[in-house]
Amino acid sequence: GDLALRKKLGVMIIAVIEEKEKGKKKTAAINPGPGYVFTPGQTVIAAGRRDALEQFERMVTGEGG
């Protein structure tokens, strides 16, 4: 969850934006809680040091981390 990301990487998830259907309404989860599940196609807005954000990106894209 978000708390683990902050503790482990120093990354804070600010919001997650999801498009319900291609070109349709977008929804946003502001400051998602620790039980939030990321899914492919979402846009994640995060804050942290550049190296920590790069490590987070590798984790969520499955490229290691």
TrEMBL record:
Gene Ontology process terms (BP): potassium ion transport
Domain RCK C-terminal residues, every copy: 2-59
One Gene Ontology MF term: monoatomic cation transmembrane transporter activity
Domain of life: Bacteria
Matches recorded under Pfam families: TrkA_C (PF02080)
InterPro entries in the record: RCK_C, RCK_C_sf
SUPFAM superfamilies: TrkA C-terminal domain-like
Entry protein name: Potassium transporter TrkA
